[in-house]
Specification:
15 helices, mainly alpha
Length: 406
């Protein structure tokens, strides 16, 4: 492991050990949702609140993540990547333990907001470290590996959350999340070096970022693609926010069975990303985003139709949500590429805007699945279909506006 960890103070190399460490801490945001989702029904029963109130804990996390994405680049440019990352992950773990002892739903919502701010730093700075130490194809390859590793978060997070919920309810699940956060803090402290030398740092100034954001806001094509990306993520969060209630309440299955359904859809998400990576060079990002949106929209509409017909079961839910997730992966991958292609003159601002849109939109739409209570899957299916349809419209608008400027 020592070989994989460059000496602090020297320019680090992107070794397999460093990639592994960055991939682990980059899972903070994903694990914060996936490990926690199986505990939703337990939380609802224990605190005696509505399903929509439980989903507000997810919404609060997403709002916090949006805020964290907006400021983390500026802060780390001034203080360095390592100091920012270690501090954020330390707070992430402490806030997680506090959340597990929250006496009311209001306290839990507030703590999840703070956990979103600190947890979002993991993925953002993991990518930044790679960009600091590598360029060109090596940087692209490193970030691709990071994204694949982050996609594995739900594969272990959801089953772990289900087991902890079975053993000790939602509070033990949050203790488990905080413990994982403590592990991430230790990994960052021990194995991740500083990648931004002092001579390359500059004072934290929000002015240049705001000016670049204002410039991008006048680019209709950028906004269209950015919202297409954010809405694809938002549609997925509608599914995330209600899936535990659908499987455990509508289908009357255990939290462990739910975790297996979630793992299946998460693997489909990773597969969709890999499939997209193989074809996008030949077909182009716009063709692939249309294919991804078609898969997501078709599967969501089928869920609506089957639910209205009274035929929805666990065995129709699993394959259709897997197809839906694969389509979301393609929509997000190509939406991100198309957006950042429009922001080459202000890449930092473009990345900040993309993160802000991603979590901001998801915070707005994620409660849709619980609007009609936890006894039906219909609002979840309708929400997934409606938000995906908005993503299709945004991508189409972005494409039309882009053609006008060519």
């Amino acid at each position: 492991m020592a070989e994989a960890t460059p000496r602090l103070g020297s320019q680090p190399r992107l070794t397999p050990g460093l990639i592994a460490a960055l991939g682990f801490v980059g899972m903070a945001g994903a694990v914060s949702t996936d490990l926690y989702l199986p505990a939703f029904p337990s939380l609802q029963s224990d605190l005696g609140v509505a399903e929509s109130a439980v989903q507000l804990t997810l919404t609060a996390f997403l709002i916090g993540a949006a805020a964290g994405q907006f400021v983390v680049g500026t802060v780390s440019d001034a203080l360095g990547r390592r100091r920012t990352l270690v501090t954020a992950l330390g707070l992430f773990a402490v806030i997680g333990f506090a959340a597990s002892a929250a006496p009311t739903i209001e306290w839990l919502i507030a703590l999840r907001l703070l956990q979103g701010v600190t947890g979002s730093v993991g993925a953002a700075l993991a990518r930044a470290v790679v960009a600091d130490v590598e360029q060109g194809d090596r940087a692209a390859r490193g970030i691709s590996i990071l994204i694949a590793m982050m996609g594995l978060g739900p594969v272990f997070g959801s089953p772990l959350g289900a087991l902890l919920t079975e053993w000790g309810g939602w509070r033990l699940a949050l203790v488990g999340l905080a413990t994982v956060g403590a592990g991430m803090f230790l990994v960052a402290l021990t194995f991740i070096p500083e990648s931004l030398p002092r001579e390359r740092r500059h004072p934290a100034r929000i002015g240049p970022l705001l000016r670049n954001l204002a410039l991008l806001a006048r680019d209709g094509s950028f906004l269209g693609y950015a919202f297409a990306y954010a809405l694809s993520y938002g549609a997925m969060m509608v599914y995330f926010g209600s899936s535990s209630f659908v499987v455990q309440r509508v289908f009357d299955e255990s939290s462990l069975v739910y975790s297996f359904t979630f793992v299946a859809s998460s693997i489909a998400f990773v597969a969709g990303g890999l499939f997209n990576g193989r074809l996008v060079r030949r077909a182009g990002a716009y063709v692939m985003i249309r294919i991804g949106h078609a898969l997501s929209l078709t599967s969501a509409v089928l869920l609506v139709v089957i639910t209205l017909a009274g035929g929805l079961s666990l065995w129709t839910w699993i394959p259709l949500t897997c197809i839906f997730e694969a389509g979301c992966a393609m929509g997000m991958s190509n939406g991100s590429a198309l957006t950042l292609r429009r922001a080459t003159m202000a890449a930092g601002a473009g990345s900040a805007a993309l993160g802000l849109f991603q979590f901001g939109v998801a915070a707005v739409v994620s409660p849709f699945g619980g609007l009609w209570g936890s006894g039906t899957a219909l609002p979840t299916a309708v929400g997934m279909a409606a938000v995906t349809l908005l993503a299709v419209a945004a991508a189409t608008l972005g494409r039309r506006l882009e053609r006008r400027t060519v």
